[in-house]
Amino acid sequence: MDDVSERQMHRRGHGYEFDASEAANTLSGDAYTSGQDHLLPIANVGRIMKKALPPNAKISKQAKETMQECASEFIGFITGEAADSCQKNNRKTINGDDICAAMKTLGLDDYADAMRRYLHRYKEHEERASSRDHNRIACIDVVDELSVSKTSSSRRHPLPTNPSEG
């Protein structure tokens, strides 16, 4: 089994396994974080889910919690791969290019390409803003930039379906 497959198998379980020494290095002070600290805020997850559904749709607490865990695990999976790459290259900071490369390594090529396009546009916007000496927040239409969404007439906002479409 190759190195990438072993890492994928290692990360696939319900609980993402971190090396305790790595975790200790990332924590400030001696305090460890609780199990909930690695999860995205449930209110944000619910808000994103609501935007993707018809206006009168209801979302159960269990559905929000399930999506919260899945999204958090997905982010941890990709970030872990990017961190491994940075560590091998003796770097301590993960950047957007590392995330895109990790997505490709993990077989998410279409999403990595979409993210790379988004990252490129974001960097262009930041360069223009800094050259004009403005301190504005970048407002880029993520759906248009990522081009991984398929519009459905039954939804207010499109959901990502097949990343190769668009």
Automatic annotation (TrEMBL):
The lineage of its organism: Eukaryota, Viridiplantae, Streptophyta, Embryophyta, Tracheophyta. Signal peptide: none annotated. Keywords: Transcription, Transcription regulation. CDD domains: HFD_NFYB. Belongs to the NFYB/HAP3 subunit family. Gene3D superfamilies: Histone, subunit A. Pfam families: CBFD_NFYB_HMF (PF00808). This is Nuclear transcription factor Y subunit. It comes from Musa troglodytarum. Residues 40-103 form the Transcription factor CBF/NF-Y/archaeal histone domain. It comes from the Eukaryota.
